[in-house]
Here is the input.
Amino acid sequence: MLKRKLICLTVLLFGAVCSFAQDEEETAGGSVEANNPLASFTAFNVHNYYTPELTGLPDQTANTMWMRYAKPVGKWLFRASLPFSHVPTGATSSQSGMGDLNIFAAYLFDVDKPGVAFGIGPQVTFDTASDNATGTGKTQAGLAVVYFDGSSPVFQWGGLVTWQTDVAGDSARADTELLVAQPFYFLQLGGGYYFRGAPNWVFNREADTYHVPIGAGLGRVIMTEKVVFNLFFEPQFTVLSKGGGQPKLQLFAGFNMQFK
Here is the structure.
């Protein structure tokens, strides 16, 4: 029932915004660059994932809020992400606390096509969790690859793929190997409004679990003299999953700021 209501609400809002869509030139304003993960702006984002349903845990919910900071330095883009989570620890128990700090640095290659950006570089996740339930107990290292095609003023797309595995940490804790693919797509509707999807496809290769959602939401970009604000809401519905404790549905909301 909740899924059907969210789908209907998203479709109705999408149709209402489309009816007010403006011409292509206005659509091409700051809305395109506001969703570019490789944009050459300092940025601060707050992203929240609320999970009202999990596989194998019918009476539990989960929530993770990410604080993210991105800073371009020459040909490099540095991004640091710190989660604060509320996670189930059993059928009726749960724990809240700070998670593990993730940092990646993407080297931005020169791409001979306006609006297209590509970056690749290392990533490290540090054991900063305040509780065993909200972290892995491991220091992890890996790779991040990101691509963004903003050559069209109407439709933009791309993806972020990260891989990491443990290189140090508590030997009593489980080993880690995590592959995450995040496709993203944005359809500009005019007036700063846009349709969006940016689900995370998470594959825990060590535990042999995964969940693959699709996302369909709406966002609004608000331009000011010094800051570009980007607000959005995106329900994400899992279409494939394996293992207990996987999200059946996530409600993804975000507030982004780019500083000119």
Q: What stands out?
A: Residues 2-259 form a domain with the Porin fold (CATH 2.40.160.40). The mean pLDDT is 91. The two ends are 43 Å apart (CA to CA). The longest helix spans residues 2-18.
